[in-house]
Design brief:
disordered N terminus; Metallo-beta-lactamase, Chain A; 2 domains; seven-stranded mixed beta sheet; 14 helices; binds zinc ion; alpha/beta; about 30% helix
Length: about 425
């Protein structure tokens, strides 16, 4: 990778982050100033002083930015990263919903993985064997559209471990709409891609473990391991939709996925340390930005989703220690309208999410920063030994297709093998040599 271009890309992202950070330090921010969070854990200062600067030394300044991979998590700390914060609308600036939750005990969980989220998740440069638990709130494209890519690009990106997926089903509703059926069909859809790679690369991480839970149960424990408990409550979003509550080490995280504010949420998420709830456009905004009809605008913002005023109200009722509004297009012209609508009904701490916004949550409070990701990522080394499928299972391209190889290429390919073996000291035979 060209180092200069990486550095300039990081600088550009840094400037975007700086511009955001400046605009973010206003009365509407949920930011809490204080020595909490990972700056301390990473051995850095919360804010650089004149003494930190020299003509040749590095400056440690974690005041505004989070640089993935550079900060240790404290054993009692939770870090949440928005890998998708936008609307269903596919666009460059915001992927569809996806939140990575990392805990001080080493556990990592992904909540929803909407379209565009995989590249953001992977840009954080975390070995994929550590990020193999995905929880899906409902089977909308903007909440699981990137699951196939995240799953099927495991082998090429260093994942050796199986992928575990949790999702809703049951509750007396159509079984063919549940997570199990959905994942069976996903495997079938990508049968060709899975099958043709067997024996070419280590494909063990295609193994998929699916847990379908009854979405209609209230405060239902769907995960309980290593001190982490994850519960679901029903969401009002058609059917077979849930919100999640994660509890660990005395910290409580609530994530709505999609829902109209409901009694289960207000009963079970009160006082959460971090409460991430959808905050959709207000009805009039759909007329201008989405060209919806008035009826379509009202349907979308009040009966299927939570408009910004409704978000404010549900936060005023549940009084989380720190609120996060997501699932709206966060642009210079839309944000003031969203902030005004939220402030009609809520005056507490709230962040208006963008992709790569990061929250460090401890019992002392939540610290919000923007993450600066590397846009030019490559796979990390696998955490274990790679294993190839045996000769018997190995996929082979039909002979007549390989017979179509242009004969003048044979010496070129032979030279590639010879040079490779010489450079690396290997003795890999050219299978095309007659
Ligand atoms: Zn949805
Ligand atoms: Zn959605």
């Amino acid at each position: 990778m060209n180092r200069i271009s990486t550095i300039s890309a990081l600088l550009v992202l840094g400037l975007i982050g700086a511009a955001y950070g400046i605009g973010h330090r206003d009365g509407s921010s949920g930011r809490e100033i204080g020595p909490i969070g990972t700056a301390e854990a990473a051995g850095g200062a919360a804010s650089a002083t004149a003494a930190d600067f020299s003509r040749t030394g590095a400056v440690v300044n974690n005041d505004l930015f989070y640089y993935p991979g550079t900060e240790a998590l404290r054993p009692d700390e939770m870090r949440v990263t928005a890998c998708g914060s936008g609307m269903p609308l596919p666009r460059l600036s915001q992927a569809a919903p996806c939140f990575l939750v990392e805990l001080g005990n080493g556990d990592k969980f992904v909540f929803d993985i909407g379209t565009g989220a995989t590249e953001r998740l992977m840009s954080l440069q975390i070995p994929l064997d550590y990020v193999n638990k995905v929880f899906i709130g409902h089977v909308h494209m903007d909440h699981m559209g990137d699951l196939p890519a995240f799953w099927i690009y495991g082998p090429q990106n260093g994942r050796l471990a199986p992928l575990h997926v949790w999702g809703p089903g049951g509750g007396g509703t159509r079984p063919d709409w549940g997570m199990k059926a959905s994942m069976e069909h996903m495997k079938k859809m990508w049968a060709w891609m899975q099958g043709t790679l067997v024996g070419t690369i280590d494909t063990r991480s295609f193994e998929l473990h699916v847990t379908e839970f009854d979405w209609s149960k209230v405060n239902n424990v769907i995960y309980d391991e290593n001190g982490v408990v994850i519960r679901t409550i029903p969401a009002i979003h058609f059917e077979q939709s849930v919100s999640f509550i994660l509890e660990w080490n005395g910290l409580k995280l609530a994530y709505s996925s999609d829902t109209v504010p409901n009694k289960w949420w207000t009963e079970h998420t009160k006082g959460a340390d971090l409460s991430i709830h959808e905050c959709f456009f207000t009805a009039p905004m759909f007329l201008d930005w989405y060209r919806f009809t008035p009826q379509e605008a009202l349907n979308a913002s009040t009966l299927i989703h939570t408009s910004a005023q409704m978000f404010g109200k549900v936060m005023a009722i549940t009084k989380p220690k720190h609120a996060v509004a997501y699932h709206f297009s966060n642009d210079p012209d839309t944000l003031p309208l969203i902030v005004d609508a939220v402030r009609e009904t809520y005056s507490g701490p709230v962040d208006f999410a963008k992709d790569f916004m990061v929250w460090n949550v401890t019992k002392e409070g939540t610290r919000t920063r923007m993450g600066v990701a590397n846009p030019n990522r490559y796979p990390l080394p696998p955490l274990g030994e790679k294993q190839m499928a045996g000769e018997a299972e190995r996929y082979r391209t039909p002979d007549w297709v390989m017979g179509g190889l242009e004969p003048q290429l044979l010496p070129v390919i032979q030279k590639i093998y010879d040079d490779f073996n010489e450079q690396l000291g290997t003795e890999i035979p050219n299978p095309l040599a007659k």
